[in-house]
């Protein structure tokens, strides 16, 4: 469903429902990103950001040059590490471009929404991480701005996920 935003004729807005549709939306947004991403992940499902195509796009962004930056707010990094999630393995190999933090304040930890925000103005927003539905736009900076502002505020209050650092023994 395409619903153009007022004043943004280039924005493509869609309601996204179902796991396959969410995976396709994530891949489309990742492919459109140039150098920077912001991800808010209360839950990191085994299939979320773990397939070959998504990982290839994440690696492309992380290795895109000096401006490369992928910021991830992950509520439960210990579970992702224990489960051997492929995103964590990518982070451990490219930790100079991928940063993962964990929200520490209760108000931030209670936020159950999932966000994928790109430097090209695209976004994917799921109001509830446990439900496979949300909305996306490619691009729409006006709609993305409040999400990015909230992400930045939570990011500043969060702690580095030090348990994910690879040990070089």
Q: CATH topology, what is it called?
A: Endonuclease, Chain A
The CATH class is identified as Alpha Beta
The rounded distance between the terminal residues' Cα atoms is 52 Å
- Mean pLDDT, as a whole number? 89
Q: What is the percentage of strand-forming residues?
A: 15-25%
How many domains, in number, for the residues?
A: 1
CATH architecture heading? 2-Layer Sandwich
Helix content: 25-40%
Strand/helix succession? EHEHEHHEHEEEHE
Helical/strand content category: alpha+beta
Number of strands: 8
Instruction: List the total number of helices.
Output: 6
Shape: globular
Strand order across the largest sheet: 1-7-6-5-2-3-4-8
Give the biggest sheet: 8 strands, mixed
Give an overview of the whole structure.
- The chain has a single domain, classed as Endonuclease, Chain A, CATH 3.30.870.
- 36% of the residues lie in helices and 22% in strands.
- It has six helices and eight strands.
- Strands 1-7-6-5-2-3-4-8 form an eight-stranded mixed sheet, sandwiched between helices.
- A hairpin with a 6-residue loop joins strand 6 and strand 7.
- Helix 1 runs parallel beside helix 2.
- It is globular.
Q: What's the helix and strand layout?
A:
Layout: E1 13-17, H1 19-32, E2 36-41, H2 52-62, E3 69-74, H3 77-82, H4 86-93, E4 98-102, H5 106-109, E5 114-118, E6 123-126, E7 133-137, H6 141-157, E8 159-160
Parallel strand pairs: 2-3, 3-4
Antiparallel strand pairs: 1-7, 2-5, 4-8, 5-6, 6-7
Helix pairs in contact: 1-2
């Amino acid at each position: 469903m395409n619903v153009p935003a007022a004043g943004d004729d280039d924005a493509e807005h869609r309601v996204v429902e179902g796991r396959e549709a969410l995976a396709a939306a994530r891949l489309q947004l990742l492919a459109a990103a140039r150098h920077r991403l912001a991800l808010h992940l209360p839950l990191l499902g085994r299939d979320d950001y773990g397939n070959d195509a998504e990982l290839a796009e994440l690696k492309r962004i992380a290795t895109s040059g000096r401006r490369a930056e992928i910021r991830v707010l992950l509520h439960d990094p210990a579970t992702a590490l224990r489960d051997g999630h492929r995103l964590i393995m990518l982070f451990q190999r490219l930790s100079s471009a991928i940063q993962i933090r964990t929200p520490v304040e209760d108000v931030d930890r209670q936020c159950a929404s999932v966000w994928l925000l790109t430097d090209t103005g695209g976004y994917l927003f799921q109001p509830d991480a446990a439900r496979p539905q949300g909305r996306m736009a490619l691009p729409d900076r006006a709609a993305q701005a409040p999400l990015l502002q909230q992400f930045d505020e939570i990011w500043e209050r969060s702690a580095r996920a030090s348990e994910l650092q690879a040990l070089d023994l």
